[in-house]
Amino acid sequence: QVQLVESGGGSVQAGGSLTLSCEASIYISTMAWFRQAPGKEREGVASLTSLGSGRTIYEDSVKGRFTISKDNAKNTLYLQMNNLKYEATAHYYCAASWVGPGLSPVGYKYWGQGTQVPVSS
User: How far apart are CA 95 and CA 108, in angstroms?
Assistant: First the structure.
């Protein structure tokens, strides 16, 4: 069983920056960030895998503004979010899998409890 613990959420103004962290209890090859806004379905934001030569995937609306990275020595995943928009307001979840990468929640077996990111306009 893999435990995931997110941190770093909090209120931020539109245009600002925030970095989320997700510590995994063990090494796992593929990790990702998802978010779920009130009344909406959970959507993939970014995914990173160490499988093969490694790969990252971003949801189109965050490309160029969000950066996913991982410190394998610490089993910790990060999401650097710049130029945040009001529409980014959501509960952000860390997820992990032994396959992937991908932005569909179906492919992920392990989930954290999430951290809230309210963006004020």
Answer: 6
Q: 47-106: per-residue pLDDT in tens?
A: 999 998 999 999 999 999 999 999 999 999 999 999 999 999 999 999 999 998 999 999
**What one-character DSSP code corresponds to residue 40?**
S
**CA–CA dist 64, 8 (Å, integer):** 20
- Whole-angstrom distance, CA of residue 45 vs CA of residue 62: 7
Q: Please state, in angstroms and rounded to a whole number, the distance separating the CA atoms of residues 76 and 83.
A: 23
Maximum alpha-carbon separation in the chain: 41
The residue assigned the tokens 């790969």 is: 55
Q: Do 77 and 19 form a contact (C-beta atoms < 8 A)?
A: no
Find out whether 76 and 25 touch, Cβ atoms under 8 Å. no
